[in-house]
Amino acid sequence: MERPTRFEHSRWVGDKRDQRVHDLDHCDEAAVEELMEARTYLSFGPDTLAEARNRGYRLCRCPGARQAHRAETDVDAAEA
User: Domain range holding 45?
Assistant: First the structure.
């Protein structure tokens, strides 16, 4: 999926309506398009899931985002 114009260099984008954070690399295109149309988004600095969680955002329910997060977490745990 191609990233939205304002978020070429961002991976994590928050939805202010429901305090969910979307992974632009793995979320459903329809969910991201709907978020961009609603114009209720924000980015995080630094661009990390940890920063989004610090601001009270939870990971979205998109299956692709959850699978990617689990895979990253499993790799991090195996390296430790």
Answer: 5-79
Residue 42, burial from CB neighbour count under 10 angstroms (0-12, 13-18, 19+): middle
CA distance linking residue 14 with residue 40, whole number of Å: 8
Predicted TM-score (pTM) of this structure: 0.80
Specify burial of residue 22 (Cβ count, 10 A radius: 0-12, 13-18, 19+).
Answer: buried
Number of independent structural domains in the chain? 1
Q: Coil, helix or strand for 21?
A: strand
Residue 75 pLDDT greater than 80, yes or no: no
User: Which tens digit of pLDDT belongs to each residue from 6-26?
Assistant: 788 999 999 999 999 999 989
Give all strands (DSSP E) within the chain, no chain letters. Answer: 12-15, 20-23, 41-43, 58-59
Cα–Cα dist 44/50, whole Å: 10
